[in-house]
Amino acid sequence: MKFVLALLIMACALFAVAQNRRLTPETPRTGPAMATVLLLRVSGPIGPATADYISRGLKRAAQDRAPLVLLQIDTPGGLDSSTRQIVKDILASEVPVAAWVAPGGARAASAGAYIVYASHVAAMAPGTNLGAATPVQMGGLPGTPSPGAPDSPIPPRAPDDKASEPKKNTEDVRPGADAMTRKIVNDAAAYLRSLAQMRGRNVDWADRAVRDGVSLSASEAQAQQVIDFIAADPAELLQQAHGRTVQMSHGVQHTVASRGLSIVPMEPDWRTRVLGIITDPTVAYLLLLLGIYGIYFELTSPGFGVPGVAGSISLLLGMFALQMLPVSYAGVALIVLGFAMLVAEALLPSFGALGIGGTIAFVIGSVMLIDTDTPGLGIPAGLIATVAVVNALFVLVVLRLALKARNRPVVSGSEELRGMTGEILVTTADAAWMRLHGERWRVLSASPLRRGQRVRVTGRSGLVLQVEPIEDAPAMGPHASGSSGQAGT
Fold first, then answer.
1. Would 220 disulfide with which of 143, 167, 216, 363, CB 3.0-4.6 Å?
2. What pTM was computed for the model?
3. What is the DSSP string of 421-467?
4. At what angle do helices 381-407 and 281-300 cross, to 10 degrees?
């Protein structure tokens, strides 16, 4: 059965690989260029799945020799590693990329601003905004500025100080910032300025977007030459982008020919969808917990197999997802420590100390696990609270079982024999024998014993029981309360 199951899994994997190769051929097409524009939609936080999706889209556009790639953006920000990979792919693209912040109400904040600046053509829909590119966390884009000192507030800006005016000192950083914060902010500002210089856009505002976190509406962005134009819909964007000369990789000049072309959207394939699901911090956290608990239950209850298999798969998927996210290894260590303490609580008599400590370590590790303040890339507090409650219930159940077991009567060993009653089977000049638990025991007593007399066990010395009479019986009485079966010979 296991062999058949393995063959089925292998067949499904080979079929998926074949389908993927059929849908995305490796060799570029040599035919005429396609008269369609490829549309890529980016919505939500930018992560590894987004970078993979855009990379595949640009490769497909190059293979199909598409005249333009339309990148529709609505994002609050994202991870530094994923954003820089997207920027590299756009800069190296063989097909011009038009970034379009849309629909109305959308935004290209933080990481989105970098992607818009890197694109060959930049446009926004009415009612959208762009900017706020200040780094928010080391795991974000691209790091975390520490808050300024309480006694060093940011000096107020004059009312006539426009966002597009150049800074007198491009190295100025928020007062009270430490050396690491200055390095992070300066690096991000230089990165965005270099993109602005490459595309001929407003360099001074790019610097302000990083250092002061300023944002612009669509009309303000067009007036300050941050974007090229405003387009209410894709057709208007293609019309306005037509005839523009953009600089491709290696300094090659290219004229966009997009008037009257049709638009073909590219939806994420199964690989991108799966990657997007498992790299969600909440899902990665749950996979990690399911893996740990599954392996624990398999080790404590071996033979069934399902918890071990499911736990192993979940643990590997969780570890794969976490290595693609900005993870605090201190948080991972605290989670592992908390789990170890919970297991120890079930095995060692700590009276709840290990369980309470393990729950506290679990909660602190869960809070510290994802090292970023980027919106949409954290673990919900409700989920952490739920896990903490489950762990606390586990500790309470273990304590209840321990107390219940403590109050149970002893059912084995010498302690079990003390207080049990039986009857004398045989008496001799130097000893007597009684029946207890279907066994014959030699007994000693300070009082004379008679055959059939009922006695109570008061102690044990090796294979000899100390007893005391509880009643006088001249003849064989009923079976002892602690006896069973027939006496041995």
1. 216
2. 0.64
3. EEEEEEE-SS-EEEEETTEEEEEE-SS---TT-EEEEEEEETTEEEE
4. 20
